Amino acid sequence: MATQELELGSELVERVAAIDIAKASGMVCTRVPHATRPERRVQEVRNVASTTEAIMELGEALVALGVTRVVMEATGVYWRPFFFLLESCGLECWLVNARDVKNVPGRPKTDKLDAIWLAKLAERGMLRASFVPERPIRRLRDLTRLRAALTQERTRHKHRVEKLLEDAHIKLSSVATNLFGLSARNMLDALVAGERSPERLADLAQGKLKSKHRALVTAFNGQFDEHHAYVLGTLLAAIDHVQSQIDNLTRHIETSLTELSGPQADLGTKRPAPLGGALTAVERLDEIPGIGAITAQIILAEIGLDMSVFPTPGHLVSWAKLSPRTIQSAGKNFPGGTGQGNPWLKGALGEAAMAAARTDTFLGARYKRLVKRRGHGKALVAVARSMLVIVWHLLDDPQARFHDLGADYHQRLTDKATRTRGLIRQLEALGHDVTISTRTTAD
Asked: Per residue in 412-432, pLDDT tens?
């Protein structure tokens, strides 16, 4: 343990601790006022193992020192034991972005110096805390993220099935719109069971697929053998197993949301839980074009129910990295990328924005207005940003409901006389003489 006295500067936080975290340990630096000389600071650095017992002992020591803030850099998942255990000791814990804690160039880099540098930044108020939701929301995140991962795994298995059928010269996907619909799945099960007759396989078609009987017979005229049947059966079993896991997770997510909606739910918020509860929040978010129940659950799991952590909608969209940055140099402004942000939230909003862009609503009209001059990608980001602003207002006011402004919202705002003069000028610039005749509307 190293101890030294330093001169007091213009500190904003008197008693701080900083932790440079590794997998098996953390380098802890504490900076507190000197006991007898207020103009001095006492700095201590020590290495602490990342075990529960060692971290709890550290928490007791920090509480005894009167530390009011513990700052740590986000390092993989290794920050979690330190953050949550020290938080349980009553300490205020801040998780900071590594980008905001860069060391001074040319300075030696060691764990000890990194911890000291982090502590100095913390005591001068030069860091911003990252958003770390409370335990109920973190658990809901685990469920929704696992469901998304399993959904991706199911999709990979389905792609393998199509690849296998192509290897066996079975062109079912060229005839059936959904390779895993009711009719197509019955045909695949029949192939696994040993059926090889194209006619009998085509007879399993139901609904609209019956009209494609001849095309189905041609599609099944391949070289499907027992090897293909074994692999296909394995893949279908894997798809069914993953699907059952997804269904169980969805039910567990709905149950968790029900528990969060209870009047006694403790979310660690600064104000009471929203009236109507989380299920009502899911239903209200579901009213936004492009957002379904699954997407609403993902949004709530990523941003939580309490919007007091995001003072304005601008803070939320900035945290989600859906607002472009402006880079200025030599008096010139250059466009900057939005950044990476939360991939789970941005992925869900991106899919919702693509769905909303195809609707005859305000969000759909917004996409159509922007895509002409900004391109598809930027138009989708703008629509996703608008959706997140709507979500903020709905969660901030539990009594608010979504009301679509309509696809003609911007047209209603446009002054007709101004619009008319502009169109006349354009026609005159093309060499036309324009005569205006106002049409009267019959009562």
From this structure: 887 788 888 888 999 989 989
Helices (H), ranges, 194-332: 198-202, 213-219, 226-260, 277-286, 293-303, 313-319
CA torsion, ordered 289, 290, 294, 298, to nearest 10 deg: -100
Give me the residues paired with residue 289 across strands.
Answer: none
Structure tokens belonging to residue 51: 């075990």
For the entire predicted model, the pTM comes to 0.82
Residue 143 is which amino acid? L
* Site of tokens 């950044």: 339
Q: Contact at 8 Å (CB) between 246 and 147?
A: yes
DSSP 94-153: EEE-GGGGPPPTTS---HHHHHHHHHHHHHTT---PPP---HHHHHHHHHHHHHHHHHHH
Spatial CB neighbours of 112, under 8 Å, sequence gap ≥ 6: 2, 20, 27, 29, 45
Contacts of 204 (CB under 8 A, 6+ apart): 183, 186, 187, 190
Decide if 380 contacts 354 (C-beta within 8 A): yes
CATH-assigned architecture of domain 2-123: 2-Layer Sandwich (3.30)
Q: Quote the CA–CA distance of 60 and 38 in Å, as a whole number.
A: 24
Tell me the pLDDT tens digit for each residue of 141-196.
999 999 999 999 999 999 999 999 999 999 999 999 999 999 999 999 999 999 99
What does the alpha-carbon distance between residue 52 and residue 353 come to, in Å, rounded to a whole number?
43
Report the run of H or E that residue 45 belongs to, with start and end.
Answer: strand 40-49
**Which residues share a beta bridge with 335?**
326
